[in-house]
Amino acid sequence: MSFMKKILNNRHPYMFIAPSLILLILFSIIPITIAFFISFTNLDLKGLVDFSSVSFIGLENYKALLTDDRFIKAIFNTVFYVLIGVPLVVILSLSIALLLNYGTSKLFTFFRSVYYMPSITNIVAIAVIWGFLYNTEYGLINYILSFLSVDNIPWLNEPTLAKISLIIVAVWKSLGLNMIIFLAALQGIPKDYYEAAEIDGANGFQKMLYITLPLLRFATFFVTVTTLIGWIQFFEEPFVMTQGGPLDGTLSIALFIYQEGFQFNEFGYAAAGSFILFIIIIIATLIQFKLRKSDTEY
Amino acid sequence: MTIIMMIGGILVSIPFLWMISSAFKPENEILAIPPTIFPENPTFDNFIKLFTEMNFLVYLKNTLIIVAVSSVGLLFNGMAGYGFAKFEFKGKEKLFYLVLATMMIPGQVTMIPVYLLLNEMGLTNTMSGIILPGLVAAFNIFLFRQFMATIPTSLIEAARLDGAGEFYIFFRLIIPVAKPIFAVQAVLMFIAAWNSFLWPLIIANDESLYTLSVGLSLLKGQYANNFALQMAGAAFMVVPIMIIFGFFQKYIVEGFTMSGIK
C-alpha cells in the first residue's frame, strides 16, 4: 500500500514519460518480442486468418535462409554496398567539412546548405530525379559522357553497375548529415591549439595531421558506426529505384526481408531474416567498439 | 580551397537544377537530344496536370495532416525528455535504457510485427495506423533530455514554491526556456513527416490516404515515360522543404552542435 502511495505522490514524472513510453513499448519492444517468436513459426497469410494452421517449426526458417540463393545473394550485395559506401561517405563528408570550415562568409553558409540539401530530400523524389539522370537514352549523364565519346551506359540495367549507381545516389544523399556532425566537432576545437602550433612553426598540413584529425577521432568514430549500421540496413535506394533488380543484382538483406514479408506474406521466414540482419548489425557494431578501445591510448 | 568547395557544391546540386529545369519543359522537349539546358518553351502544364490528372491535392492534404499530428509527437518527446532530465523516480535508469535500447532495433525487425499488430487493432488503411508507429522516437527524446538537463533546477523549484502545478510549469516555464531545442526538433519533424513514405505505403490501401511521396511513386509507375510530369511531381515535394530549410538552416546546424556530438 505504501508503495502505491509513493507512486501516486510522485506520479508526475510518470505522467510526463508515459505517452512516449507506451508508444515505444507498443511499437518497438512488443514487436521485437513478437518477431522473435514468429521467426520460429511458419506464419503466413493463411496463418493470419486461421491461427490453428500456424505451427512451431524450430530453426527451420533460419536453416532455409542460409541455403536460400536469393538470401545469400542479398548478403553478398549488402557486403558490396558496405565496403564501398561506408569509406566513401566517411572520407567525402570529412573532406567537405574541412573545406567548409575554412571560411565563415555568406558563401560558405550557402554552400553548407547546398551540401546538406540531398539529405533532407524525399527518397521517392530522389528516385524520380536520378532515374531520369541515369536513363540510358535520355539521361543527362550519358549525354555528357557522349562528349567524351563514351557509348550509352546502362546505369541501372546491369547488375554490378546498378549496385554502383545506387551507391552513388546513397553517398550523395548521406553526405550532408555526416558533414554537419564533422563541422560541429571542428567548431569545438579550441583556436589556441592552432595558434600554439603556429608559434612552433607548424604549416597547414602539419596542423591538420597533428591537431585536427586526432581531435576528430570521436566524430569519425560516431560517423563510421552510424554509417555502417545504416548501410547494413541499405533499403530505400534499391526499393524505390530498382526493386532489387536486375536479376537480384541490387537486392539487399533489408529489401529481401521486406519482399518476403509484404510481397510474399511469409511473415515467419521474413522475421527470421530480420533477426539474422540484427545479429550482423550487433556483431559489426561490437567490432567497431573493440577496434576503438584498442587505440584510445592517445 | 574555395574553388574546390564551389565545384563540389555545383556537382551536388546538379540533380536539383536539372529537376527544376525539366519540370518546366513541355513533354516533347524533355526527350529532345541534345537536351536543352533551360526550357525553350517554359510551361506550367506539368504542375497543373499534377492536380488534374493525379490527385495531388488529396496527397497534399494527407501529408499536411501527418505533419500536424506529428507535432503531438514532438510534445510527447519533449515531455519525456523533461521527465527523464528533471525528475528522480523509481526505475528511471532502467526506463531510460529501455528507451535508448529501442534505437538499436532495426526497422526491418519491427516492421512486420507492427503491421500484424495494427492489423489486429483494425488500424490498417487508416490515418491512425499511418501516424502512430512513428509518432515518438528515442533519439529525439534523448536530444530533449540533453537540453533539458541544462535548465537550472532552482528555476523549477522556485515555481513549485509559488504553488505552480507540474504541467503549468512544463507549459509555461520549460517550453519557453527550451525553445531552441523545440525549434530544431520542429523543423526536423516537419521534414520527416513531409517525407514519410514507407509506412504510408504499407498501411494505406486507398488512394484517398496516400501521402505525397506515395502519390509520387504512383505517378512514377503510371507515367513512366513522361519525365517532365515526374520532375514536376518531384519539384512539388522538394521545393517546399528547400524553402523551409533555407529559413531555418542556421538553427538545424546549431541544433547538432547543441546535441554535444564532438
How would you characterize this protein structure?
- The complex is a heterodimer of chains A (298) and B (262).
- By secondary structure, chain A is an all-alpha fold.
- Chain A has 2 domains: 46 residues, no CATH class; 236 residues, MetI-like (MetI-like fold), CATH 1.10.3720.
- Chain A has 15 helices and no strands.
- Chain A is globular and about 75 Å long.
- Helices cover 74% and strands 0% of the residues of chain B.
- Chain B contains 14 helices and no strands.
- The longest helix of chain B is centred in the last third of the chain and has 32 residues.
- Chain B starts with a helix and ends with a helix.
- Chains A and B meet through helix 2, helix 5, helix 6, helix 7 and helix 9 of A and helix 1, helix 4, helix 5, helix 6 and helix 11 of B.
- Chain A: This is Sugar ABC transporter permease.
- Chain A: It is found in: Cell membrane.
- Chain A: Belongs to the binding-protein-dependent transport system permease family.
- Chain A: It is a multi-pass membrane protein.
Topology:
The complex is a heterodimer of chains A (298) and B (262).
Chain A: H1 2-9, H2 12-38, H3 45-49, H4 60-66, H5 69-100, H6 106-116, H7 123-134, H8 140-146, H9 159-187, H10 191-199, H11 204-215, H12 217-232, H13 236-241, H14 253-263, H15 267-294
Helix pairs in contact in A: 5-9, 5-12, 5-14, 6-9, 12-15, 14-15
Chain B: H1 2-23, H2 27-30, H3 45-52, H4 56-86, H5 92-104, H6 107-120, H7 127-131, H8 138-148, H9 153-161, H10 166-177, H11 179-195, H12 198-203, H13 212-222, H14 227-258
Pfam families (chain A): BPD_transp_1 (PF00528)
Transmembrane segments (chain A): 21-40, 79-102, 114-133, 164-186, 215-234, 267-289
InterPro entries (chain A): ABC_transporter_permease, MetI-like, MetI-like_sf
